[in-house]
Specification:
With 365 residues, the chain is of the alpha/beta class. The protein has 14 helices and 13 strands. The strands form 2 sheets. It has an 8-stranded mixed β-sheet. A 5-stranded parallel β-sheet has the order 11-10-9-12-13, sandwiched between helices. Helix 2 crosses helix 14 (350-363) and helix 7 packs parallel to helix 12 (316-325). The model has no long low-confidence stretch (mean pLDDT 93).
Length: 365
C-alpha cells in the first residue's frame, strides 16, 4: 500500500526536531516496517529534490503547492494524510479532494488547539466545508470531543513513543543528586524563563543537578536572545540541540537524557506552543521521569493525579521551589511507581499506535 503525508515543509520535515515531526516520522517508519511504501510530499522548498532515508520511505520536496498536488496524480497513492497546509491553499485542496475522492482516500491529523475561539473555528473549518472521505485523527481528547460533534469519522490516537523509551522502575537509576532537566525549544511560550528562574534559585543547593537541552530558532529574536545568554553564562549547564539535524544519535541522546533524569520541567505558558498532547510529556512518562507541568488541556487525564501538576493560575516558579524545598528521593521513587502503572493504562508505544493508525486507513478501503 502506498501512503503519502502532505504538508508544508516547515511543518514536519523528516530532519526537523519537534512534536509533529516525531509523530509523523515514527508512524511513517513503522508503516514501512509493516510493508508499506510511504512518501513525504512537502512543499514550499527552494527547489525540487528527492531523498530516501530508508528503503520504502521517500522525501519529496516541491517548490509550490500546485507542484505537490500534480505529483500525486500519477503516484498511485491509496491514502493521503494531510498534516498542515497554509490557509490560502486549503480551499484548492478541498476541491482537489472532491475531484479525486474516487481514487484516493484523504485523511487529516489535528495537532493543535488554538486558544482563541475565532482561530479554533478557522482551524477546524476546513474539514467541515470540504469533508474528508477518510479519517480525522485527533491527538487529544478535547479535540476528539469537539470534532466528534460534527464528524462520525473521528479517531482519538495518542502520539507514538518508541519502545526503547519505556523503562521498568528497577531500570531507572537512583542518582546521588536529584537530576532536573529542561528539554525543548528555547521559547517563552514553553516556559524557558521560568526554568531559568528555578535553576538560578537552586544554584547553591547541593541536593540538585540541572541542565537545559535547548532548541532555538534563529529567526525568533526572543529565542535567539535567550540562547545567546545561556551560552555566555556559566552557572546553568546548557547543551544546544540543532532543530534541523534529526538523527538516530539525537534520538539516542534523548532516551539517555530522560533515563538519567529524575524531574523534567515542562512549564508551558500555553499548550498552543506545542502539540495538544506534548510528545515530550509522553516520552518523559515512558522514561519514568517526574513531570513538573501545568494541567492544561488533557494533561491531567494522561499524567494522572499528582502534586507535580502545578496550579493553572499563579507562578510555576514559586510552586516548583516550594515543592523542591522539601522533596525527598522517596517522593520521586513513589511517583515513578505511579507513572509505571499509569503507562499501563495508556497505549502509546509506536508499534501499537502505528498499527491502530493503519487499521483505521484500511477501514476506509
Amino acid at each position: 500500500m502506498k501512503i503519502g503525508f502532505l504538508g508544508l515543509r516547515q511543518a514536519f520535515d523528516y530532519y526537523q526536531i519537534g512534536g509533529t515531526e516525531s509523530f509523523i516520522r515514527r508512524i511513517a517508519i513503522q508503516m514501512v516496517k509493516e510493508g508499506n511504501n510511504v512518501d513525504y510530499i512537502l512543499y514550499q522548498n527552494n527547489e525540487y529534490s528527492e531523498i530516501s532515508p530508508i528503503p520504502g520511505l521517500t522525501l519529496r520536496y516541491f517548490k509550490s503547492f500546485e507542484e505537490a498536488l500534480n505529483s500525486m496524480k500519477d503516484g498511485n497513492f491509496k491514502h493521503i494524510i494531510t498534516v498542515y497546509l497554509l490557509p490560502k491553499d486549503r480551499p484548492e485542496f478541498g476541491l482537489y479532494r472532491k475531484r479525486n475522492s474516487n481514487s484516493i482516500t484523504f485523511h487529516f491529523i489535528y495537532f493543535s488547539w488554538p486558544e482563541l475561539t475565532v482561530k479554533r473555528l478557522l482551524y477546524f473549518s476546513d474539514a467541515r466545508l470540504f469533508p474528508y472521505n477518510g479519517k480525522l485523527f485527533c491527538i487529544s481528547n478535547r479535540q476528539y470531543k469537539y470534532v466528534k460533534k460534527w464528524a462520525n469519522n473521528t479517531v482519538y490516537i495518542l502520539p507514538p513513543v518508541p519502545g526503547g523509551y519505556f523503562l521498568e522502575p528497577e531500570e531507572k537509576p537512583n542518582n546521588k543528586k536529584i537530576k532536573i532537566t529542561f528539554l525543548g525549544r528555547i521559547d517563552p511560550g514553553k516556559g524557558i524563563e521560568e526554568v531559568i528562574e528555578i535553576f538560578k534559585a537552586i544554584r547553591d543547593s547541593d541536593k540538585f543537578e540541572y541542565c537545559i537541552y535547548g532548541i532555538h530558532i534563529p529567526e525568533d529574536k526572543q529565542s535567539l536572545k535567550i540562547h545567546n545568554w545561556l551560552k555566555k553564562q556559566e552557572h546553568i549547564e546548557y547543551i544546544e540541540v540543532d532543530r534541523q539535524r534529526y538523527s538516530i544519535e539525537v534520538e539516542r541522546m534523548t532516551k539517555n537524557v530522560l533515563k538519567e533524569t529524575d524531574i523534567i520541567i515542562l512549564p508551558y505558558k500555553r499548550l498552543s506552543s506545542t502539540i495538544d498532547t506534548p510528545v515530550t510529556l509522553l516520552e518523559s512518562m515512558a522514561s519514568l521521569c517526574v513531570v513538573l507541568t501545568k494541567p492544561f488541556g488533557n494533561i491531567p487525564d494522561i499524567y494522572g493525579h499528582s502534586k507535580f501538576l502545578t496550579p493553572v493560575e499563579g507562578s510555576v516558579t514559586e510552586y516548583a521551589l516550594r515543592l523542591l524545598k522539601d522533596i525527598k528521593y522517596e517522593n520521586i521513587i513513589n511517583e515513578r511507581e505511579r507513572l509505571f502503572e499509569q503507562n499501563k493504562k495508556l497505549d502509546f508505544k509506536t508499534e501499537n499506535v502505528a498499527r491502530s493508525f493503519l487499521a483505521c486507513l484500511r477501514e476506509c478501503e
